C-alpha cells in the first residue's frame, strides 16, 4: 500500500487564514472541533495556539485541518492535538488519501521523547480506513474506543424529515406540539445566560460528561458576533422548562447543549426544541446537523433519543498518538 499512496503535501496558512476559512465554509459536514471559532475560544484558556494547514494531494487542494499546540524550550517540550481532522473537500478522503496525509503528518511531527500527540482522526471505523492508518507510524491507543456521533441531513423538505423520525420519537413530538409550551428562538443570544445557568445546574445534578460551562460560554462569546449561536427555549406558564443550544460552523450545526426540567420532560419539550432547531437551521441555509457524541454504555438513553431523528450514525476509528 505504501508504494501506491498519492503524493501529499501540507501547506501552513496561518499568515493568511482567509482562503482556509473559505474552504472550511464550503466543506460538507465540517465539524465544530475543526472550526477556527473553536480554536479562538479554547486555545487561550488552555495556553495553546492554533495552526491551520491545507492538504495538497498530487498538487490539488484536497482538504484542510487545524491543530492545537503548546511548546516550551523551542519545542523540546511539545504537545499537539488533532481533534476530528482532517476535513476533506469533495472527491477526497479515500483510504489512500487518509494514509498519505497521516504519513506526511507523522513526518512533520514524529513521535519522540518530549512530544505528546493526541490524534482523533475524522476517519470512519471501517476495515480499509483502519488498514490505511495501521500502515503509518501512528499508534492507536489500546484503551481507545471509536467515537460515535449522529448526523442529520437537513436538505430534504420538512415533510420528508418528519417522516424520517422514528415512530416513538414522532409520538413525543406530537405530544409536545399539543402541550401548552411556548418556544422562542434567537440568533442574538437572548436567554443564553439562563440556558448556561440551567446547563450548569443540570450537569452538576446528573453528573454527565461534557464541556464545562466556561468552555461553552467562551464558544458563544466568540461565535455570537458571527451569528453562529442558536438558542432555543421552551416555557410553560412563563416558567423555563427546557433549553437548547446549537453552534454553527461551515455548512453545519452542532447540537451542543440540551437540558430539561421534570415538567419539560413530562411534555417532551426537548423533542419539540430539537425538531424546531432543525427548521431554524434549514431556514438559515445549513445543510447538516451533528447531534454530538453518543455511546452504548453510560449514556444509552441519550443515544436512543438522538437516534430517534433518523440520522446517520457514524463511528470514527478512535484515538491515536
Strand content: 25-35%
Compute the number of strand runs.
13
| Average predicted confidence as pLDDT | 95
Number of helices: 11
Distance between the termini: 21 Å
Count of domains: 2
**Radius of gyration over all CA atoms, rounded:** 20 Å
Taking pLDDT < 50 over at least 5 consecutive residues as the criterion, the unreliable ranges are none
What can you tell me about this protein's structure?
This protein is α+β, with helices and mostly antiparallel strands and about 325 residues long. The protein folds into 2 domains: about 1-140, Aminopeptidase (3-Layer(aba) Sandwich); about 150-315, Aminopeptidase (3-Layer(aba) Sandwich), CATH 3.40.630. About 35% of the residues lie in helices and about 30% in strands. The protein contains 11 helices and 13 strands. A 7-stranded mixed beta sheet has the order 8-9-10-11-12-7-13. Strands 1, 2, 3, 4, 5 and 6 form a 6-stranded mixed beta sheet that branches. The longest helix is centred in the last third of the chain and has 16 residues, at about 270-285. The mean pLDDT is about 95.
Strand and helix layout:
Elements: E1 8-12, H1 18-25, H2 36-46, E2 49-57, E3 60-72, E4 77-85, E5 87-88, H3 95-108, E6 115-121, H4 127-134, E7 148-153, H5 158-164, H6 167-178, E8 182-186, H7 192-206, H8 213-224, E9 229-236, E10 239-249, E11 252-260, H9 262-266, H10 269-284, E12 288-290, H11 300-307, E13 312-315
Parallel strand pairs: 4-6, 11-12
Antiparallel strand pairs: 1-2, 2-3, 3-4, 3-5, 7-12, 7-13, 8-9, 9-10, 10-11
Helix pairs in contact: 2-8, 3-4, 6-10
Amino acid at each position: 500500500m505504501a508504494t501506491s499512496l498519492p503524493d501529499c503535501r501540507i501547506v501552513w496558512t496561518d499568515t493568511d487564514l482567509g482562503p482556509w476559512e473559505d474552504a472550511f465554509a464550503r466543506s460538507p459536514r465540517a465539524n465544530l472541533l475543526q472550526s477556527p471559532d473553536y480554536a479562538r475560544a479554547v486555545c487561550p484558556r488552555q495556553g495553546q495556539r492554533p495552526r491551520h494547514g491545507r492538504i495538497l494531494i498530487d498538487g490539488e487542494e484536497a482538504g484542510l485541518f487545524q491543530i492545537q499546540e503548546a511548546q516550551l524550550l523551542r519545542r523540546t517540550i511539545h504537545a499537539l492535538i488533532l481533534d476530528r481532522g482532517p476535513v476533506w473537500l469533495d472527491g477526497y478522503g479515500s483510504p489512500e488519501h487518509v494514509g498519505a496525509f497521516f504519513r506526511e503528518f507523522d513526518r512533520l511531527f514524529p513521535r519522540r521523547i518530549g512530544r505528546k500527540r493526541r490524534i482523533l482522526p475524522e476517519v470512519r471505523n471501517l476495515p480499509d480506513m483502519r488498514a490505511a492508518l495501521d500502515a503509518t507510524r501512528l499508534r492507536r491507543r489500546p484503551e481507545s474506543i471509536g467515537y460515535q456521533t449522529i448526523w442529520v441531513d437537513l436538505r430534504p423538505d420538512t415533510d420528508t424529515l418528519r417522516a424520517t423520525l422514528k415512530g416513538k420519537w414522532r409520538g413525543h413530538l406530537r405530544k409536545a406540539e399539543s402541550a401548552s409550551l411556548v418556544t422562542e428562538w434567537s440568533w442574538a443570544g437572548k436567554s443564553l445566560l439562563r440556558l448556561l445557568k440551567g446547563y450548569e445546574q443540570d450537569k452538576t445534578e446528573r453528573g454527565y460528561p461534557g464541556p464545562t460551562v466556561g468552555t461553552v460560554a467562551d464558544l458563544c462569546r466568540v461565535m455570537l458576533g458571527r451569528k453562529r449561536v442558536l438558542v432555543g427555549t421552551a416555557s410553560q406558564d412563563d416558567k423555563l422548562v427546557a433549553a437548547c443550544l446549537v453552534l454553527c460552523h461551515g455548512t453545519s450545526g452542532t447540537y451542543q447543549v440540551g437540558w430539561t426540567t421534570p415538567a419539560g420532560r413530562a411534555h417532551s419539550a426537548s423533542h419539540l426544541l430539537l425538531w424546531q432547531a432543525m427548521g431554524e437551521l434549514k431556514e438559515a441555509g445549513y445543510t447538516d446537523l451533528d447531534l454530538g457524541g453518543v455511546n452504548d454504555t453510560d449514556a444509552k438513553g441519550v443515544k436512543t433519543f438522538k437516534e430517534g431523528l433518523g440520522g446517520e450514525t457514524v463511528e470514527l476509528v478512535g484515538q491515536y498518538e
